[in-house]
Amino acid sequence: MAGQPDAQALTELRSAVAQVGQLSTNVQEGKVTLDPAAGAQLLSSLRAHSEEITSWQRQIGELSASLPLGQNPVAESMGIKFSHRADGDDMSLATVLAQYQTAITDATSAIEQAMQRYADNEATIGESFGRISAS
Question: How far apart are CA 72 and CA 70, in angstroms?
Answer without folding.
Answer: 6
